[in-house]
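A quick word before the example. In earlier lectures we treated sequence and structure as two separate objects. From today on, think of them as two lines of the same record. Here is DoxX family protein written that way.
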Amino acid sequence: MSVVSEKILRSNGFWLAARILSSVVFVSSGLAKLLDFGGGVSEMAAAGLHPAWLFNIGTVIILLGGSALLLLDRAVWLGSLVLGFFLLLTIAVVHRFWSLPDSAGQQALYVALEHLSVVGGLMAATVASHFRKLNRHAEKDAA
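And the structure line, produced from the sequence above:
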């Protein structure tokens, strides 16, 4: 690996950019459900979740709380776990491709596959956060 690549990969700015980009989908959805509370409640009701207002509040807390942990690089493992579990639940509850007809099932399958890819990205962020912390501690001990 080149020296330039190594510097970029070790930089705090690159790590921050990765965390920001990884959380955009969660922050935007959480803010949308918070700022348009009625719309979020309608989404929950359409998914068959009752009481819809309570599910909307829980969703906002999960999306924004998990994102905050990821963005602040604090307990990234916990933020990733919560967000990843949330995505897996949305596949089971909302994007049930196996029970939907034709094109609706195909579209739900694509969304489910995207969710699985994001879960993998969250797992990678957890690993990266862990090893960045180990590396920082090793550098401090060596100094």
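Notice the following. The longest helix spans residues 102-142. We will return to this example when we discuss secondary structure assignment.
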